[in-house]
Amino acid sequence: xxxWGPEAALPPVSIARLHHSAGHTRQPGSSRPAGGAYGLRIxxxxxxxxxxxxxxxxxxxxxxxxxxxxAATPDPEYVDTATARLDVRAGGFVVMDRAAGRVTFTLxxxxxxxxxxxxxxxxxxxxxSHWLGRDAFHAGAFxxxxxxxxxxxxxxxxxxxALAALSRSGVPxxxxxxxxxxxxxxxxxxxxxxxxxxxxxxxxxxxxxxxVGNRERWRVPLGPIRPELPFRGWVALRWAxxxxxxxxxxxxxxGELLDHRALxxxxxxxxxxxxxxARPFLELSRPxxxxxxxxxxxxxxxxxxx
Length: 306
Known about the structure:
Blueprint: E1 35-37, E2 40-43, E3 53-54, E4 61-68, E5 78-79, E6 83-87, E7 92-97, E8 102-107, H1 113-131, E9 135-144, E10 147-152, H2 159-168, E11 173-175, E12 178-182, E13 185-187, E14 192-195, H3 197-203, E15 207-212, E16 215-221, E17 228-239, E18 244-247, H4 250-259, H5 270-277, E19 281-286, H6 293-304
Parallel strand pairs: 2-4, 4-8, 10-17, 17-19
Antiparallel strand pairs: 1-2, 1-3, 5-6, 6-7, 7-8, 9-10, 9-11, 9-12, 12-13, 13-17, 14-16, 15-16, 18-19
Helix pairs in contact: 4-5
């Protein structure tokens, strides 16, 4: 069973130097606030400030490295208390060393820094969250009312399209694919949403990146957001013939959260899952046609903004 996703000695290869796709380089002697995502400060690669949030000094710092190799990697996935090795969907693997604060991706092809940050950084956020006693979920998130709402849904449930519609309406987006929580605090993710072709065309959003990770992506930049925000509750997405919104029952809430944990290892603090399941928990049903998008968004925002 795969430890990561909805779904070790390294070979002797050279470290790949990463450049941002926009050609950004840092000038000698220049300085800027440290960037981060998922509650981690990121170093080791050159990134545009707009890729990440401004990271508080108390966030743990990690160094990213990338190796390019075509060598076979049959080693099993694992996560222990000090190190982890997980497969990467695009081909390759990532090794994490907690004590050294080091993350080394071994990929079959070179990657831009932006591609490394999104989507590859999500697995790092999930593992480091586990080590730090935080919780990570396969979820998007947005800000409404007095806090952050996590958006849960299976593959193909339209999470990113819902987030794009919210963003287009002026709603702040916290993250696209992984939501990291520590108690009542939500940590912001990288500042972009990745869409599929149909959604990008319907909304008229996104820059075509080609294949990044394991699929074609159209990237939508997100505006700045506070790195830490109060967490409010959950919204589970469902396809249905008619739009509607209701509160989810208690037993179904915990099952929904367990199904969408980002890392498939036992939670370090099971009681925290019960606390998260006890928060406001809505189920949003909507048809698969685009004509109802504005009406469904209205239902959602009315329900979460009260």
